[in-house]
C-alpha cells in the first residue's frame, strides 16, 4: 500500500474513532490502539510533507509554533450579554421581552408557548467563533473587541471533541458557511490535574480555569493546548449561509449536535418567568456536578425570527440575558500564611484556614493574591475571615470579620528577603514602598534561587542562550532525579566530573555524553552577552544583554558601573549635557530607548549584580573558565551607522541564506530592533518565500518591504 493511501486510510479511521468516542459515546477502538495509529500517521506525514492536511487528526497533538496572531473581522459581531443578579431583574426582563415580542398576539411565531425561552448554564470560559466552510474547519476567532478577534485556530484544532470535518447526517444539509459561537474551557478535572502537576514541579498553580484557558489558547505553541485537553461547547449562532438551516435556537442546537459538534445537555425550555426561575434553581444545584465552571444561567428567546425583531443595543442583544449566581461565602479562622516562591521568583502569600465546607468541598487553603491585598485587608493570624470561591473554583479570602480579632493576633508581614535563598526582593510597582496597598508583585531576583532553578537551567542551555547540545529539558530532569548534582548554573560546568555516573543513566550512551560534555566546554566561550541573556536575570533579556555588552567590555567593568551608568544604554553614548537633559525626563527615557534599562529596572539589575549570590556565581564562572568578556563591545566613537540602525524590522516567510535567529542576531548587531509583529511603528519588512499575513499587513499599512536579494545587497554593498 502506498504512503498516500495509508495516510488517507488512517485519517478516515481516526476521524471516525473521534466521532464515535465524542459524539456517539460508543468507542470503536481502545485508547492504546488510537494512540498507536495516530503515531503511525504522524510518522507518515513527517516523511511525506507534500501530503500535509491542516485538519488531519494529528493536529490534535499540536504542530509547530506559529509566529504570531492574526486579527480578523467577525462576519457577524460578537456582542456581550447583559447580566441580572436577582429574581426581580429576571422577571422585569421577561416582562419587557414578552411585551416587545407581542407574545399575546395571535401569531404563528408564537404557536409553541412552552418553548418561548431557553435556559442553559453560563460556562465560565473563553468565547469563540468557529467557522466551517463546505463542512471543513477553517478558523477559530476570539471575541476580541466584538468586531475583530485573534485567530487561534492553531490551538483550537487540538480539541479532540471538536470535529474538524462535519459528516452529513440524514435529513441535514450542511451549509456552505456554518459559523457557531461557543465557549472553550479547561475541564475542572483537567484543571486539578494541571495544577497538581505544576505544584509537583514547584510551579505556581493557575488561579482559575478561565484565566488558564485564555492563556493556553494565546500560547504560540499549539502543543501547550494539546497537553491541557481543552473542552468546547457550542451555544450560539454566527453566520449561516442557509436561512432554512434552523428557525429556532433549539432547532439549531439539534442540527449541530447531530453533525457532531459538542453541546451541553443541561438545556431546558420555559414559557414564563416562573419556569425560568425554577430552571435557575435546578441549575444552581446541578452545576457542582458538572466538569466545567459555570457562573450563571443564560436565558434567551428561542425563536430566531423573534430574536431578529428584538434586535440589539449598541453593546448587547435584547433577546438574551444572563443570570449570575451569587458566590457562596463562609467564615473561618486564619491559622497561618505561607510565602510560596514560584519558578519566576514571584512570591505569593497562601492562607491556611480552619477547614470549612464551601461550594461542595472542604477548604483548608486560600489565595491571598499579593501583599498589597494583605495590607489592604489588614490580615492578622487568628482573624475570623470571610472566604468565597472565585469563579466557584479557587478559594480566596475576601475580608476580616470586625470585632473578632484575638488580643494576641499578629499582623501578616511580607518577607523582606526571599524565603528560599534570602536574596533581595523586587517590589512591583515601584511606588509600593510609599503606597503599600498598591503592591502587586514581590519577586526574588536571584536566578540561582532553588525555587526557580529547574526552569532557569532549561532556559540557560537553550539554542539562543548558551546553546548546549544534548542537555535538553528531559535530560536535565533525568540528571536532577539522580544523585548527580545539578542545582546551579555552575553545576553544568562540573558535569565532566560525573562522566561515569552519567553513562549509567538510562538512554545516556557514550556518544550522547561526549556530545554533551563537548558542547558544555564550547559554551564557555560564548561571551558576556550570551551569558547575561541566559541567566534569566530579571529585566535582562537577549536585547538588553547585547546592549549592556556593547557598553561594558567585561563583567568587572559592569560590576564597577554606577546605577546611572546602567540606565538606557543609548544615554551612555551622549554628551554629559545631553545625558543630564534626558535624566531630567526619566519618564520618557524608557520609551525612547526600548532596549535599555530604565530607572526602575536598572536599580533592580544593579541590586542583583551586587548581591552575594550574584557575586558568587560569577566568581564560580570565572574559576570554571567561562569567558566573561564582551564580544560585542564597541568603544565610544567607534560605532558605525548602517542602513538598519534604529529601524524596527519584521521577518516573514522562508529565507534561503539565513535562519530567522541568525538574521535577527545579525540585524540587531547592526543596530536594528527585530520585532515579531507588523504595526505602524514597523520600518521595514523582510519577506522570504511563502510570506503570509505579515506581508499583507505591511502592504496595507504602507510599510517598506524588501525581498532577500535587496537584503543581501544592503548587507554586502
Characterization of this structure:
With 717 residues, the protein is an alpha+beta fold. It has 6 domains: 3-61, Helix Hairpins (Orthogonal Bundle), CATH 1.10.287.610; 83-324, D-amino Acid Aminotransferase, Chain A, domain 1 (2-Layer Sandwich); 329-411, Nucleic acid-binding proteins (OB fold (Dihydrolipoamide Acetyltransferase, E2P), Beta Barrel), CATH 2.40.50.140; 453-523, DNA polymerase, domain 1 (Orthogonal Bundle); 528-623, Orthogonal Bundle (DNA polymerase, domain 1); 648-715, 3-Layer(aba) Sandwich (Rossmann fold), CATH 3.40.50. The protein contains 26 helices and 24 strands. Strands 12, 13, 14, 16, 17, 19 and 20 form a 7-stranded antiparallel β-sheet that branches. Strand 13 and strand 14 (361-367) form a beta hairpin. Helix 1 (3-22) runs antiparallel to helix 2 (31-47), helix 3 (87-101) crosses helix 9 (273-286) and helix 17 (528-534) runs antiparallel to helix 18. The longest helix has 20 residues, at 3-22. It is globular, with a radius of gyration of 30 Å.
Amino acid at each position: 500500500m502506498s504512503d498516500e493511501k495509508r495516510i488517507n486510510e488512517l485519517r478516515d479511521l481516526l476521524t471516525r474513532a473521534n466521532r464515535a468516542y465524542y459524539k456517539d459515546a460508543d468507542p470503536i477502538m481502545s485508547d492504546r490502539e488510537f494512540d498507536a495509529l495516530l503515531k503511525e500517521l504522524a510518522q507518515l506525514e513527517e516523511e511525506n510533507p507534500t501530503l500535509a492536511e491542516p485538519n488531519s487528526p494529528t493536529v490534535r497533538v499540536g504542530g509547530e509554533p506559529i509566529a504570531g496572531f492574526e486579527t480578523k473581522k467577525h462576519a457577524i459581531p460578537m456582542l456581550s450579554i447583559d447580566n441580572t443578579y436577582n429574581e426581580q431583574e429576571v422577571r422585569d426582563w421577561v416582562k419587557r421581552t414578552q411585551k416587545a415580542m407581542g407574545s399575546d398576539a395571535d401569531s404563528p411565531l408564537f404557536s409553541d408557548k412552552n418553548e418561548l425561552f431557553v435556559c442553559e448554564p453560563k460556562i465560565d470560559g473563553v468565547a469563540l467563533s468557529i467557522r466551517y466552510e463546505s463542512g471543513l474547519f477553517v478558523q477559530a476567532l476570539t471575541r476580541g473587541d466584538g468586531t475583530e478577534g485573534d485567530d487561534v485556530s492553531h490551538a483550537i484544532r487540538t480539541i479532540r471533541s471538536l470535529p474538524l470535518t462535519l459528516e452529513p447526517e440524514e435529513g441535514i444539509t450542511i451549509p456552505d458557511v456554518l459559523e457557531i459561537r461557543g465557549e472553550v474551557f479547561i475541564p475542572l478535572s483537567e484543571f486539578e490535574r494541571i495544577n497538581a502537576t505544576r505544584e509537583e514541579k514547584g510551579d505556581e498553580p493557575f488561579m482559575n480555569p478561565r484565566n488558564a484557558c485564555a492563556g493556553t489558547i494565546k500560547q504560540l505553541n499549539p502543543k501547550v493546548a494539546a497537553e491541557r485537553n481543552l473542552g468546547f461547547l457550542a451555544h450560539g449562532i454566527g453566520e449561516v449561509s442557509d436561512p432554512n438551516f434552523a428557525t429556532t435556537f433549539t432547532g439549531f442546537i439539534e442540527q449541530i449536535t447531530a453533525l457532531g459538534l459538542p453541546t451541553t445537555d443541561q438545556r431546558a425550555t420555559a414559557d414564563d418567568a416562573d419556569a425560568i426561575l425554577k430552571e435557575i434553581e435546578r441549575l444552581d444545584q446541578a452545576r457542582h456536578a458538572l466538569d466545567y465552571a459555570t457562573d450563571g444561567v443564560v436565558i434567551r428567546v428561542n425563536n430566531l425570527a423573534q430574536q431578529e425583531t428584538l434586535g440589539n443595543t449598541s453593546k448587547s442583544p435584547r433577546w438574551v440575558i444572563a443570570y449570575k449566581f451569587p458566590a457562596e461565602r463562609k467564615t473561618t479562622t486564619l491559622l497561618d500564611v505561607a510565602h510560596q516562591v514560584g519558578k519566576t521568583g514571584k512570591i505569593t502569600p497562601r492562607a491556611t484556614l480552619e477547614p470549612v465546607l464551601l461550594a461542595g468541598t472542604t477548604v483548608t487553603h486560600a489565595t491571598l493574591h499579593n501583599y498589597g491585598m494583605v495590607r489592604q485587608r489588614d490580615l492578622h493570624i487568628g482573624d475570623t475571615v470571610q472566604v468565597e470561591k472565585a469563579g466557584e473554583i479557587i478559594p480566596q479570602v475576601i475580608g476580616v470579620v470586625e470585632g473578632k480579632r484575638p488580643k494576641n493576633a499578629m499582623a501578616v508581614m511580607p518577607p523582606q528577603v526571599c524565603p528560599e535563598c534570602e536574596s533581595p526582593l523586587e517590589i512591583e510597582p515601584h511606588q509600593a514602598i510609599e503606597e503599600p496597598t498598591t503592591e502587586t508583585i514581590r519577586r526574588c531576583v536571584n536566578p540561582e534561587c532553588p525555587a526557580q532553578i529547574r526552569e532557569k537551567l532549561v532556559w540557560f542551555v537553550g539554542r539562543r542562550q548558551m546553546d548546549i547540545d544534548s542537555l535538553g529539558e528531559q535530560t536535565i530532569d533525568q540528571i536532577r532525579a539522580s544523585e548527580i548534582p545539578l542545582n546551579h548554573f555552575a553545576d553544568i560546568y562540573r558535569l565532566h566530573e560525573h562522566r561515569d555516573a552519567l553513562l549509567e543513566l538510562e538512554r545516556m550512551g557514550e556518544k550522547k555524553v561526549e556530545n554533551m560534555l563537548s558542547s558544555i566546554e564550547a559554551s564557555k566561550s560564548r561571551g558576556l552577552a550570551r551569558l547575561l541573556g541566559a541567566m534569566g536575570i530579571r529585566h535582562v533579556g537577549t536585547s538588553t544583554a547585547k546592549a549592556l555588552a556593547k557598553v561594558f567590555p567585561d563583567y568587572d567593568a559592569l560590576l564597577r558601573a554606577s546605577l546611572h551608568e546602567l540606565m538606557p544604554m543609548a544615554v551612555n553614548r551622549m554628551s554629559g549635557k545631553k545625558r543630564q537633559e534626558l535624566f531630567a525626563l526619566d519618564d520618557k527615557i524608557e520609551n525612547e530607548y526600548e532596549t535599555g534599562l530604565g530607572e526602575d529596572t536598572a536599580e533592580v539589575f544593579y541590586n542583583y549584580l551586587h548581591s552575594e549570590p550574584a557575586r558568587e556565581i560569577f566568581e564560580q564562572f570565572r574559576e570554571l573558565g567561562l569567558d566573561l568578556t564582551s564580544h560585542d563591545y564597541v568603544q565610544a566613537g567607534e560605532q558605525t551607522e548602517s542602513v538598519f540602525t534604529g529601524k524596527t524590522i519584521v521577518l516573514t516567510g522562508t529565507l534561503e541564506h539565513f535562519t530567522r535567529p541568525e538574521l535577527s542576531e545579525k540585524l540587531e548587531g547592526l543596530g536594528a530592533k527585530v520585532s515579531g509583529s507588523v504595526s505602524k511603528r514597523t520600518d521595514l519588512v523582510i519577506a522570504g518565500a511563502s510570506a503570509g499575513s505579515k506581508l499583507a499587513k505591511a502592504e496595507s499599512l504602507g510599510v517598506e518591504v524588501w525581498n532577500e536579494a535587496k537584503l543581501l545587497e544592503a548587507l554586502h554593498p
